[in-house]
Amino acid sequence: MKLIKNIGQLLQVREGKQALKGEEMSILPVIKDAYLIIKDKKIYDFGKMQNLPDNTYREVIDAKGQLLMPTWIDSHTHLVYAASRADEFVDKINGLSYEQIAQRGGGILNSVKKMNEIDAETLYQKSALLLKEIMSYGTGAIEIKSGYGLSINGELKMLRVIKKLKENFDIPIKATFLGAHAVPMAYKNNKKGYIDLLINELLPIIAKEKLADYIDVFCEKNYFTAEETNQILKAGITYGLKPKVHANQFNSIGGIDIATQNNALSVDHLEVMNDKDFEILKRSDTIATALPACSFFIDIPYAPLKKMIDNDIAISLATDFNPGSTPTFNMNFVVSLACIKQKLTPEQAINAATVNAAASLELENEMGSIAIGKKANLMLLKAYIKDFKEIPYFFATNPVEMIIN
Ligand code: NIG
Ligand code: FE
After folding, report:
1. Do 94 and 127 belong together in one domain?
2. How many domains does the chain contain in total?
């Protein structure tokens, strides 16, 4: 047994078995002056220091008044990629928009070209290095998408790398098949042919090799329509893959409607929302995942999270880490942006990035809160953080002193 004693604030103490909505989002349950005991990598006991059981412990960590909380859960990343797109970053500084860069052959298709040139071992090594770094910033469970292969070999290469990450890393990893991220060059004038390839050739192999948990589509003008999204999601569902959908990033074209009809776990982005989109989300259990670091980097509107909370829509936060629209994996920065730009309170933002993020990856029974039996995947915060409000307040920093599991 491992004991952590003298915890200044033990944060997010609740069963946390389902996504929080509305008023519940404003509450962050805290135990001050606490202890926590870990046994077999699970939370075994916790409480007030004055009630610490008299026992012997294999290891004792003195938190010296510092804060302890569950790790962040990053439910939306594209962390397996071949090369950075820093050249496009410079184009953007010089005035081009994300969409203009994509239209002249950059963007996702730029990453696809590089993905099809890299060998699997190098790709794995690069990805593993990144994942280690990401974990040091407090991310304790992560979703990773394919979508830079856009060919049979390219998509399988990415998904097999994700599978290897799952095998070699001690945190929950969910794999998402995003073959419908863009239409590849070879199918420029034959989108139907590409969709057929995804459905008839790739999905059966992915299912057979158990390479994915979820299916995603970039439902957007110039990418995939709502009808195409519907067709692809339904095909994924027949192979046991639950939907998570990129929707409403630049235009509202019906992605939310299709995603909820197919019981999507989440719809992600949501920078552009109309009244009908709100109505549909209100009536569903699909989690609305905002990606404010993407808005920050490519300078687009932020998802209207406050209005979503007011409408009792379950919201979550993720990085969207990728080489094009969001080159950061810092969940703490995401939580800060949600407060600064989307006017969430620290309680709401922390709830979105822990309990609700866990639900959006079907990890609500094992992650996202301090509860007996949940995975001990915890972070001890740095000594300068004296209160949970200071987690988003010290923006763009790394609050983690130590990961404890
Ligand atoms: O979520 N919007 C679509 N896909 C990614 C960006 C991918 C890229 O630019 O490489 C996103 O922002
Ligand atoms: Fe994304």
Report:
1. yes
2. 2
CB atoms within 10 A of CB 178: 28
> What are 330-345's pLDDT values in tens digits?
999 999 999 999 999 9
pLDDT at 404 over 90: yes
Q: Is 116 within 8 Å of 147 (Cβ atoms)?
A: no
Domain, as residue range, for 380: 2-71+368-404
Q: Quick one: pLDDT at residue 110?
A: 95
Q: What angle do CA 83, 89, 90 make, to 5 degrees?
A: 120
The model's pLDDT over 116-131, given as tens digits with 9 standing for 90+, comes to 999 999 999 999 999 9
- Among residues 1, 140, 10, 136, the alpha carbon closest in space to that of 63 is found at 10
Give the end-to-end CA distance of the chain in Å, rounded to a whole number: 11
60, 90: one domain: no
20 and 91 part of one domain: no
% the chain with pLDDT above 70: 100
Pair of tokens at residue 399? 């609050």
Nearest ligand (C-alpha, residue 295): 1
Both 179 and 48 in a single domain? no
Going through 165-227 in order, the beta strands assigned E by DSSP cover 173-180, 214-219
CATH classification at residue 59: 2.30.40.10
Which amino acid residue places its CA nearest to atom 9 of ligand 1? 324
pLDDT of 103 reads 87
Q: Cβ < 6 Å from ligand 1: which residues?
A: 78, 107-108, 111, 218, 246, 249, 294, 320, 322-325
Give dist(CA 403, CA 73) in Å, integer: 14
Work out which ligand 1 atom sits closest to the CA atom of 323. 10
> What are the tens digits of pLDDT across the range 139-152?
999 999 999 999 99
